[in-house]
Here is the input.
Amino acid sequence: MKAIVLGAAAGGGFPQWNCQCQVCALAWSRDSRAPWRTQSSLAVTLDGESWAVLNASPDLGSQIRATQALWPHRARHSPIGTVILSSAEIDHVAGLLSLRERHPFDLIALAPVLEALDANPMLGAVPARRVTATASAPVTLADGLTAELFPVPGKAPLYLEGDDPQLGSEAGETAGIRISGRGRSIVYIPGCAALSASVRAQADGADVLFFDGTLFTDDEMIRAGLGEKTGRRMGHLPITGPGGSLPWLAGLPTARKIYIHLNNTNPALIEGSPERLMIEASGVEVAYDGMEVEL
Ligand code: MLT
Ligand code: MN
Ligand code: ZN
Here is the structure.
């Protein structure tokens, strides 16, 4: 099995189009320590021919152009056979609008995510066969991989959450995705509000884990004067601080543990920063666009 990171950043990408925070400023200056990153997505294959794309980011068109394995082989062809969604957040679904040129593919998600798409008539232009996944029931993909979606603590997408969202809900608005083949598995959890028993169990059984690396500290956006919300309020467990994900990841037996979906304020985006070094010293990696993982 092979996975390619199509995009390693959270919503907004890195640098974010309207931001000159300290971390974005380094990226805008094209400093080699802060390579640009597009919005979170993974491509996975077993045979190298047929690919599943995990989350359709708004950058999907440029991500396909940057990834030769996803180029068409002939007129009106694409190696992309399946798109699997972990949530209906805009940074995970807007790329579907770039896949509307009559190429049939399967679109797999839990029911609450497909319901959110169905409520938007614009997404009706996407010619995908919608497959409602049942939580934790494996779905077989074209090349023999299986995909399993499992609810993780999260919340409704930002544009549907209303004034008083239920935080930490495990109703399937937010999912993790396990891709398995030939006895190996990759687990991808780009958004996670808490380390529930099922998140821990899924991570324990993975060979490679891509995990929510949105914020380094819960109040990072507030301290930078960029917003009023903590990471937890946004449905993202921070990397450090009370209950942060890093000590847990450090102790996991999983062969490779990789942060993905990093927000542009996260200083771990900068190679050699104290925050990045702390993560690396714990045996955890930080994803970058084009990163390849073979297992
Ligand atoms: C998130 O990960 O919290 C969402 O992508 C928020 C957003 O859509 O801006
Ligand atoms: Mn997001
Ligand atoms: Zn920024």
Observations:
- The first strand starts at residue 2 and ends at 7.
- The chain has a mean pLDDT of 97.
- The two ends are 5 Å apart (CA to CA).
- Residues 10-11, 89, 91, 191, 261 surround manganese (II) ion (ligand 2) (CB under 6 Å).
